[in-house]
Amino acid sequence: MRLVDLLNNDAKRYRSEVENPSDARELPLEIVDSPLDLIGNTPLVRLHRVGADLACDLVAKVEMFNPGGSIKDRPAVAMIDAAEAAGLLAPGGTIVEPTSGNTGVGLAIVAAQRGYKCVFVMSDKMSDEKISLLRAYGAEVVVCPTAVPPDHPDSYYSVADRLTEEIPNAYRPNQYFNQVNPDEHERSTGPEIWRQTSGRVTHFVAGVGTGGTITGVARVLKKMNPDIQIIAADPEGSVFSGGTGRPYLVEGVGEDFWPPTYDMSLVDKTIMVSDAESFAAARRVTREEGLLIGGSCGTAMHAALVAGAELGPEHLMVVLLPDSGRGYLSKIYNDDWMTRYGFLISDGPTAGDVLGAKRSAAPDNAIPELVLISPDEPARRGFSMMRDLGVSQLIVSVSKELPLAAKEVSGTLSELELMDKAFRNPSVLDSPVGDLMEPAMPMVGIGETVSDVVDRLDTANSVLVLEGGHPIGVLTRQDVLSFLAAGLPG
C-alpha cells in the first residue's frame, strides 16, 4: 500500500473517531508494557545517495531504532531471560559484563525493568558519552587499559572475571561465550531481513565483535538460500582479518581473540577496514543520508561499498548498521578530535608540512623516523641505541611492529634523564626501560597547524605526529625552526 493511501486511511479513521468516540474505544490499545517490547523489527532503509555509484541495490538494517539505540538490545534481554530461567540470576542480583557500551545499555534497560544492579567494565578507548550513558541508568562503570593482552590482570576481561567472583549474587552474561547471543539473532534479526527483503537478499554485510550478529543472521540466510554471501567487516589490527589484536580506535567491533560465539565457517569473505575508512564512511552516511551512525557502522558501510562495487543490478545487499552516532559526538563527529588524531587536515601550514620538509632535508641514510624500544628491554640497550643512531630520545612501545598504534606508546626514554639517573646510580642501566621511562611525548595530528605544534613544544622537547591514529614521525623545535626559516624571504 502506498504512503498516501495509508495517510488517507488514518485521516478517515480519525474523522470517524471524532464523530463517534465510542468507535475509538473498541479499537485495540496501541500501548506496550515496557521498553523491552520495542526491541526488534527495525526497518530497512535504502541508501540512495551513498549507494548511487553502485549497480546493486544497497539497503541498511538500521538498529538504532531499538530502545537502547543499538542491536545489542536483542541479545541483552535474551541472555537475561535465559539466565533467569536457569536460576543463574536471582532477584536483586548484580549483572557484571565487559562491554563497549551498547550491550551495557541493553542490559541496563533490562536491569531497570527487573530490579537488578549493574557493573560494566569498559576499555579506556570508549567515548565519554558511553560511560556517562551507562551511569545515567544507574550502573557502575570500571575503566581498564586497552593496550594489554586479554589474559593480563588489568584487561577488561580479567577485571570482569574478578568482579563476578567478588560481588555477591553476581551474574556475568558473557556475551563472547554465551550461545544465546547468536541464537537470538537467528531467532529475530535473520528472519526479519529475509521477510523484509521478500527473500531477495543476495549479500549480507556486518561487522564482527562477539560474532553473535553475523553468525545468527548467517544461519538463517544460508538455510533459506545457500548462495547468499555473508561478508564480515573487520578493523585493521583485529584477529578476524589476520591481525594480532593490536589497538585501533573504532569502537564496538573487532577483537583480540576468537570468541566461540563467532562461526567463521558461515562467512564467505572478510574485508579489513582502517579507522580512517570507518570514520569517513560513518560521517558520509550521516551527512548524505541523514542517518547519524556510529563508527562500527562506518566499518560495515565501507566494506559494503567495497563489496558492492563488484555486483550487478540483480543483487540486493543488506548492510547492518548496529548503532547510533550519538555516543560518538566527542570523537568521530568532533572535528578537533579527528584532526588531533590525524584524520582531518587544517587550512594553512600543518604538522604534516613540517614533517615533509624534515624528510626532504634528510640524507638517504637517515635514521628511522620512529626509533622504538620495548619497556622490558634493559636501559643499557636504550643507551647503546641512542649512541649508535645519534638520537637523544627513544619511543617506548609495547610493540615494534609498524604501523604503530597511538595506544601502544608507553613513554619516552631520554638521554638527559637517563644520564642523570645513571650518574647517581650506574646500576640503573641494567633496569628495564619501563622503570626509567618518562611520560610519552605529546601527540599532534598530521593536519594540525604549525601553531598547534609550537604550543605542544612549549612544554616538551618533541612531539609525536599521528596520521590516521598511527604515529609516523617525531618533530622537534629545531625541525619547526628549520621549516619556518625556509619559508622566510632570503
Model description:
- By secondary structure, this protein is α/β, with parallel strands linked by helices.
- It has four domains: 1-31; 34-67 and 184-328, Rossmann fold; 73-171, Rossmann fold (3-Layer(aba) Sandwich); 343-486, CBS-domain.
- Helix content is 38%, strand content 16%.
- It is built from 18 helices and 16 strands.
- It has helices at residues 3-19, 21-25, 73-85, 102-114, 128-136, 156-166, 180-187, 189-196, 212-224, 275-289, 295-308, 335-340, 351-361, 379-389, 415-424, 433-436, 450-457, 477-486; strands at residues 44-46, 57-62, 94-98, 117-123, 140-144, 170-171, 203-207, 229-235, 269-273, 316-321, 372-373, 393-397, 409-414, 443-445, 462-467, 470-476.
- The strands form four sheets. Strands 1-2-10-7-8-9 form a six-stranded mixed β-sheet. Strands 5-4-3-6 form a four-stranded parallel β-sheet, sandwiched between helices. A three-stranded mixed β-sheet has the order 11-12-13.
- Helix 5 links the parallel strand 4 (117-123) and strand 5 (140-144).
- Helix 3 (73-85) packs across helix 7 (180-187) and helix 10 (275-289) packs across helix 11.
- The radius of gyration is 26 Å and the shape is globular.
- The mean pLDDT is 92.
